[in-house]
Amino acid sequence: MASPASQGGRPRQPSLAQLRAFAAVAEHLHFREAAAEIGMSQPALSGAVSALEETLGVQLLERTTRKVLLSPAGERVAARARTVLEAVGDLLEEAEAARAPFTGVLRLGVIPTVAPYLLPAVLRLVHDTYPALDLQVHEEQTASLLEGLAQGRLDLLLLAVPLGVPQVTELPLFDEDFVLVAPKEHWLGGRGDIPRQALQELDLLLLDEGHCLRDQALDICREAGRDENTPVTTSAAGLSTLVQLVAGGLGVTLLPRTALRVETGRNDQLTTGYFADPAPSRTIALAMRTGAARQEEFEEFAGALRGALRGLPVRIAGD
Q1: Which of 74, 278, 298, 317 has fewest C-beta within 10 Å?
Q2: For residues 141 and 169, is the Cβ–Cβ distance under 8 A?
């Protein structure tokens, strides 16, 4: 048998068609049966096996008029050919899965002031509508989420916008109003027409620095005319702690409507008040890398999530 043919000093590579033809002959030890299995004519099958032998530089088959036998080299190559063809099959299945929407891993980043209140709806949607989707949730502050999105550590973010970040596309989900939460018997409790100017002199409790909700609350206060030098003496790491501080009489705070029931429903030492229209509000959206490979999938997911959130006290985007 001649040595393997080469081009430019490098050995030629066998083709998948050659490997498939030889593997079929090795299994059946019969050219006609092998050709029928892979849908190839007998002359084409024989030519493919001969070409493989020439490429590899070894004799793979012992041919007689009555039967076909594997040579010792053919037995070894047949086992390896089957492994290669199985690996190629796995690769094709993986590519098919990657092409199919809502399959594989989706790494979702969520800010802490959204996660406890929206994740139940997100998880139900994925379970009921996208069961083949492997959802992985990461709760982090906005700056960390944006870094993870840019680096490819995260695929999609659920957070407050606008972000004002280049190469990030926002898919708005809803707007929600802020509600004043105060200690029981507070003079603003129970009102539905609180003017924003009331925030100018209130003892306001906020989240720690780094939370976008803190920045949003401060923006609202500035718009209401609150002196930027008016101190914020107490802050908290999470909304639950913030609400407990309010119940203890240390001041008032602003909560988004989606957090209100969870955070105030179990405490009878709190009262709430609503702002006059237009009430201060925030926008919640999904965010993705601009031009992401899964852009169409993420846009469809945003539409489905808007529908899943219609039971919440929010204004759905596009309605």
Answers
A1: 278
A2: no
ω before 131 within 30° of 0 (cis)?
Answer: no
Nearest one of 69, 72, 60, 64 to 19, comparing CA atoms? 60
Output the CA angle 218-219-220, nearest 5 degrees: 90
Maximal CA-CA distance, the chain? 104
pLDDT of residue 4: 56
CA distance 35 to 70: 17
Domain 16-94 shares a fold with domain 175-281? no
How far apart, in whole angstroms, are the C-alpha atoms of residue 319 and residue 302? 14
Q: How many CB atoms lie within 10 A of CB 67?
A: 9
The class that CATH gives domain 175-281 is alpha beta
Tokens matching residue 52: 């493989």
Pairing outcome for strands 281-289 and 270-274: unpaired
Q: Which fold has domain 101-174+284-316?
A: D-Maltodextrin-Binding Protein; domain 2 (3.40.190)
**β partners of residue 272:** 181
Q: How far, in Å, CA of 75 to CA of 78, rounded? A: 5
Reported as type and span, the H/E element at residue 146 is helix 142-151
Model pTM score: 0.72
Fold of 16-94: Arc Repressor Mutant, subunit A (1.10.10)
| Residues 6 or more apart in contact with residue 155 via CB below 8 angstroms | 105, 106, 107, 108, 149, 288, 292, 294, 298
pLDDT of residue 2: 46
Cis peptide before 162 (omega within 30 of 0): yes
**pLDDT, position 199:** 85
Tokens 């002959």 belong to: 25
Is residue 64 pLDDT above 80, yes or no?
A: no
Region of 9 (left: φ > 0; alpha: ψ -120 to 50; beta: rest) is left
The runs of H, that is alpha helices, within 250-319 are 257-264, 295-308
